[in-house]
Amino acid sequence: QVQLVESGGNLVQAGGSLRLSCAASGDTICIDAMAWYRQAPGKERELVAAISYFTYYSDSVKGRFTISRDNAKNTVFLQMNGLKPEDTAVYYCNASPVDRDCSTHEWWGQGTQVTVSS
Length: 118
Hints:
Layout: E1 2-7, E2 11-13, E3 18-26, E4 31-39, E5 46-51, E6 55-57, E7 65-70, E8 75-80, E9 89-97, E10 107-108, E11 112-117
Parallel strand pairs: 2-11
Antiparallel strand pairs: 1-3, 3-8, 4-5, 4-9, 5-6, 7-8, 9-10, 9-11
């Protein structure tokens, strides 16, 4: 099993910055890709950024957000710059298993609230 704990969410003014962290523990050797999702009120959860041997960003955050990973500390970060009110959401950390012997499902954190005021 893998446990994911997010931190760093806060209230910030538009144009400001936040850095989210997600610390993984447990069977971290089983983790392949890690990602950040977000879910705004009344909307579906959406993929924001992912990192493995590649990085991926949704069009809505490209150029403003940066995902990075410290494998030695089993931690993934999301640096968010130029925040907009539409970035307001609960941000979730996600980890994918390297194979089905490790797990048949992905792991999720509990979420951290990001609120951007205009």
